[in-house]
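job 3f2a | input accepted
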Amino acid sequence: MAPSTASNRSFHSAGFQKLVIGRTISPKPEGNRGVPQVKSSKWHLPPGVYTPRQIVDGYAPLLEAVLHNLGPDPSNTIPARKMLLDNMASILRTDTRESSLNLPDASFDASRNEMRRQALKIGHTIVQYAAEVSEPQLDPKLNIRSPCEGHLLKQSVAQLMFGPRSQMHLMQLYNEWLHQMVLLRDALLPFDNYEEVIIPIEGTKLGLRHTEQTRSQFLLELLTKSITQKSVVTSAKALLAPRLSTSVGYGFQYEHGVILPAFLAGSPSLRLLHYFPVEVDATAKEVLFDYEFQDYYGAPRTEVSPRSGVLQENTWDAAALTAAEPNLRRAFLEVDQPGGPSTSTLLKLKLEFENDESASVDVGQISRGRRYSYRADEIEAGGNIDAKSGGTVGFTNASDVHPSTAVLSVTGQGLITTEKGGIHLIPTREAVLGLALLGKIFPENTILLSSGQSARKAETAGKTFANKPKFVIYCEDWKGIPKRGTGDEK
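job 3f2a | predicted structure (490 res):
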């Protein structure tokens, strides 16, 4: 298995121009164009480093053996290849009789709906890969044992596979080919850039069957409950780093890259992860990124920085609010304690400003704060907009204003809150600073407001407890934030 090599080049986030994720590495996915290796009727892909497309190519000999032994297609009939590919396509959909993952549209559950869309997108890609395989390897005598997985066949395919053209062992080959495609689809569900994920295949594992137990747990939660971030990360680890710490965390580094929440690439996804071809800890091949506070609710609390002023009711001047903010020199991710004996560590977002101030925030808590935040409703057509004030009217009541850098520089242990009720406005020009603020503030009632949204809507968003604080983070252009926050998506 070819190791990935690191360089001294910085890898910048596609969503945040100034954010450096880590040092660029060069994975070497070579795949394997050979025929699956068989021993005592069990088969496995040759060990190697694969892209998803290369895995589909590696499965191709299973289908080719079926088609070879079915023989030439009779004239005026649908080709057997098309029939078998179409059956797989139907299995990979979420709304057919043959679906292996039946997920109806669930507009009330953002996480489940996201996974439904993800399953459809990945399934379509896998079908395309399978149709585009070129020069597949063929072993006409390939014969394996494949336990029945209950994948349904269309009537025409059942007649083909159990009819006079077929042989007893061909259904075993086709069943395994189908099941491995399903396992690949489900294993890729956690990743927004799933086509780029580098997948190590080791030893004599039966394709991706080593992911089946984790897959079953993941799908059970997806189908019967609300999906959690924990289950998404656990599923990703089972595919890419199965020997990594049993602690869950929110991301990890493995030999061929780093897996982190997709918002760090600028994605608005609520749950998905992103594969980065980088290294952040040069001292470890595999390391888990864990939360600074395992239970954020029980974390210590510290008082917010003193206000710098008061925004009077019914007033708004975005340029004035952010005028005093120092320019951000650079932002980068850095492990807290590299080289330690533990298989887990903290990952920090480091910020350096041109006035030589700096700040450090736990990426795990940023991830939490983002998921638990609320977003001010978008202004509807014909809504109450004051064009002279940057498209946003002011709050109904006066609010305290806290400079973003002052909040980020608070040195007390724990998460920021205050005993003073009302709105506490924290303005910033930089979206990456907005993310950092989400990792500093206790995520009870944080509202995200951006240019073109009404401050009045921020007043009514989230929780409306009497005499309790509401933190409103204003950023001119939020990135990596869901269009609609739910506030209680754990």
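job 3f2a | The chain has a mean pLDDT of 88.
job 3f2a | closed
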